[in-house]
Design brief:
alpha+beta, 5 helices, two-stranded antiparallel sheet, two-stranded antiparallel ribbon
C-alpha cells in the first residue's frame, strides 16, 4: 500500500490526470500495490489540495472542511497528513541559516496549526486505514 501520489499538477510536484480514488497498480514482476492518493478536492475542472501539511496552514479553514466533506460525500478516503515540525511554531527560529524567504513561507500559519488541526479533524469521521479499506473490500 502507498499514499505518496499527489494527483494533480503543482509547481514542484504532482501527477496530472492521476485517479483521485484508491486503485491498484501493477508493477514489475506482476506485483500489485494499492495506491491511495492524498486528499484532493475536485470542483469541476479545479483541483484543490486539502491533504494537510502546508495546505492546512495556508488555506482558509472552511475551504479545508468543505473539501474534506466533499471527498467523503464522493465516497473517497481523505488521506491527510501533518509534518511533525508544523506543530512547532518556533522551530525555524532554532536555525541561524534559514533564509527570510524560507522562514516566511514555511513559518506561515504554524502558530495556529495545532489549533486548526484540532478544530477541523473532529468535525469529520476518521478511522484506521486498515478498517476503512476492509469496509471497502480493499486490502
Amino acid at each position: 500500500m502507498d499514499s505518496s501520489i499527489f494527483p494533480m499538477r503543482s509547481r514542484h510536484y504532482g501527477i496530472p490526470n492521476w485517479p483521485l480514488g484508491p486503485h491498484y497498480l501493477t508493477v514489475a514482476g506482476g506485483a500489485r500495490i494499492l495506491e491511495i492518493p492524498v486528499a484532493i478536492w475536485s470542483v469541476g475542472r479545479l483541483k484543490m489540495p486539502v491533504a494537510g501539511g502546508g495546505y492546512f496552514r495556508v488555506l482558509p479553514r472552511r475551504v479545508i472542511e468543505r473539501g474534506l466533506r466533499s471527498i467523503a460525500d464522493a465516497n473517497r478516503p481523505a488521506i491527510v497528513y501533518c509534518h511533525p515540525y508544523e506543530f512547532n511554531a518556533d522551530e525555524l527560529g532554532e536555525y541561524s541559516d534559514v533564509s527570510r524567504r524560507v522562514a516566511a513561507t514555511q513559518g506561515f500559519g504554524r502558530a495556529s496549526f495545532a489549533k486548526r488541526v484540532g478544530t477541523v479533524l473532529p468535525k469529520l469521521s476518521f478511522g484506521r486505514l486498515s478498517d476503512v479499506l476492509a469496509a471497502w473490500g480493499l486490502r
